[in-house]
Amino acid sequence: GDDGDGDGDGDGDGEAASSFGLKVGDRVAYTAFVGSYARYSLVPLSQLVRIPDAVTTQDAVACMTQGLTAHYLTTDAHADLLKAGDWCLIYAVGSGTCRWAAQMAKLRGYRVIGTASRGKAVEATGDGACDELIILDEAAGGKSHADYSSIDVVHRVMEITGGEG
């Protein structure tokens, strides 16, 4: 794995840690560091992010890769193609990264259409990030995998957007 968390035990220079806004005992998270499946990891200070008290460790670690990916996709990747008020289609909004992306797209002023399997519809609508939700049937075999052949997504998007797409 390359995401992780821990309590800053510190083996180094407390002054150096403070220059990164950290101190021994802080809860920290990190990403892009191979070796997080280990019980202990020696991670450079520059890769650590202090976890605020109001944030759970689980949310902080999820944010490190899922949140950063969603942020990149909603701000940098083809950012010049969308502006506030435009429709944005995000597949699988019941999943981690795509749910974050829907929330971030909404914050940027996009009108969000999400897709989700019937089994993930509750998670997909729980935070109000989607203006419209296209619910797909479950794929054979269950496990909340969406069957994208169960509905004509393009047709449904055209209906929702009044033909704008």
From TrEMBL:
Keywords: NADP, Oxidoreductase. The keyword Transferase does not apply. The keyword Oxidoreductase applies. SUPFAM superfamilies: GroES-like, NAD(P)-binding Rossmann-fold domains. One of its GO terms (cellular component) is cytosol. GO terms for molecular function: mRNA 3'-UTR AU-rich region binding; NADPH binding; quinone reductase (NADPH) activity. InterPro entries: GroES-like_sf (IPR011032), NAD(P)-bd_dom_sf (IPR036291). This is Enoyl reductase (ER) domain-containing protein. It comes from Trieres chinensis.
